[in-house]
Amino acid sequence: MSEALADHQTSLAELRHTAAHVLAYAVQDIFPDAKPTIGPAVENGFYYDFDRDAAFTPDDLARLDARMKEIVAANYAMTGREVTREEAIAHFAGNPYKVEIAREIPEGEKITLYTIGAFTDLCRGGHAHTTGEIGGVKLMSVAGAYWRGDERKPMLQRIYGTAWPSQAELDAYLTQLEEAHKRDHRKLGVELDLFSVEEDAGGGLIFWHPKGAVVRGIVEQFIREGLRERGYQPVVTPHVVSERLYEISGHLENYADSMFGPLDVEEQRFRLKPMNCPGHILIYKNRLHSYRELPLRFSEFGTVYRYERSGVLHGLTRVRGFTQDDAHLFCMPEQLQFEFEQTVDEAIRLMNAFGFTDIEYFLSTREAKLRGDTDPLAEDAIRKALERYGIAYDVDEGGGAFYGPKLDINVRDAIGRKWQLGTVQVDFVLPKRFDLKYRGSDGVDHTPVMIHRALAGSMERFFGILIEHFGGAFPAWLAPVQAVVVPISEHQIEYARTVAAELRGHGFRIDLDESNEKLGYKIRHWKMQKVPYVLVVGKQEAADGTVNVNERAASPESQGEKRTVSLATFMEELTQKVEARS
Ligand SMILES: [Zn+2]
Ligand SMILES: [Zn+2]
């Protein structure tokens, strides 16, 4: 081993790729008929593809897991040596995959073999020094994968695993996975009857059920309030428009692969809108504007359609039709900073209200060859806006979009996962393409700057993230059903109806359970439905005008609080919770 190699600090990717070697070693020992192919590190772990006739079973994975732990414990050094192409081919005779790789290594490039214990692999390197550096490793699953990702080539078996520098980190990762599974919005969407994707309607298109639509309505109302207070004007634009519009905007040229259509109608071609911007631009362009009117801020809960391959669709977070909390601002360059400040302020208000307190900001600037005179001004405006709120941010120099500099807003959810939500994008390009103008104070026409902004991002995606963030247990202000009234016996049905009617009359979202099930069953059922309050009413409650409040537990393991209070007291408490959004 060279001096430089001995000094080098093993990266997580190198550690995980080393674990892939360890897996192939274990497979060689236990299933010598399996032919190893390739084994890279991936996000959170690694995989290795094997060619083997029999399928790897869960029992096989358990045996491999045990053998891998022995190989790790043996703390084998990873040793490399350079060989000739002929030597490599000879070494892997009988394994056509390795031979193919050896043949394809470009002339002049080093060909190296790496060995741990009694297992040698063809590999270009980038490893831990020893197998003992792997602190925790676990095999996760098996899936089919074609050799070289080509469906005309043999189907291999891909074994996935995860590896970490310590057992504690592995344990934490596995706990997070388990927690993530419990919170999976696709699973909770069914259990809580929030939304569905319907086979007969096609993938990636969301059907919002009544309970999901209630939550969406509350989110929309919250966003609308903010828009109104900050001087946005709602607009509404068509879902289907002539393709001509996307010719002018440049979407047809650069974005056609992601668009649905075209639809031919009376010899004109139409498209489903993939973005709201061109529509808002047409409204701006419909008449002349003076500098005195700027900034103009048009907002729309605009539904857009984008083609995504069926393989990448995922619940609410990767879809083909979605509604953005979209807005476009038309302003003078000197107004950028104020508008950015307002946008950042509103983003913070939105994120905090929905329980996201860990927010990250990411500024991307345009690549050098696209930059114009106004780029530094816009970047400066964004930086000053962020600094004004004491916000730390990362910068990706030159990594920004074609249009202009851009700010991405990411949040971490209750279990520490990062999600991208809002984007605020400065645009110097579309105003020019559409030849937008305003009459300046100098009496001359100027081109306005545009800001595109969506803070929640898409209603679908935002809802999916909310479901996972709260694990389906929405706080009372957001819960589709805030309380359910459960009579103990049929004798209290009348009183239960009065209680429900009174609460509904005050604007609360209330269910009434008149079923014939046993009380214990009913309470369990509503707790599984994660309703914040179950109000049990029996003989005593009916006589006293009270309700027995069963509060949803803070965690599934703990018992929720129980208490009997007057209906008026309960309403007061609930009102406070809703108003405080707590
Ligand atoms: Zn390797
Ligand atoms: Zn836009």
In words, what does this structure look like?
- By secondary structure, the protein is of the alpha+beta class.
- It folds into four domains: 3-178, Threonyl-trna Synthetase, Chain A, domain 2 (Threonyl-tRNA Synthetase, Chain A, domain 2); 190-237 and 284-468, BirA Bifunctional Protein, domain 2; 238-275, no CATH class; 483-580, 3-Layer(aba) Sandwich (Rossmann fold), CATH 3.40.50.
- It is 37% helix and 26% strand.
- It is built from 19 helices and 28 strands.
- The protein has an eight-stranded mixed β-sheet with strand order 11-15-16-23-20-19-17-18. Strands 1, 2, 3, 7 and 8 form a five-stranded antiparallel β-sheet that branches.
- Helix 2 crosses helix 3 (58-73), helix 4 (85-91) runs antiparallel to helix 5 (96-104) and helix 12 (336-353) crosses helix 13.
- The longest helix is centred in the middle third of the chain and has 20 residues, at 210-229.
- The chain is globular, with a radius of gyration of 30 Å.
- The two termini are 59 Å apart.
- 36% of the residues are buried.
- The model has no long low-confidence stretch (mean pLDDT 94).
- Bound molecules: zinc ion (2 copies).
- One zinc ion binds at residues 275-277, 328, 452.
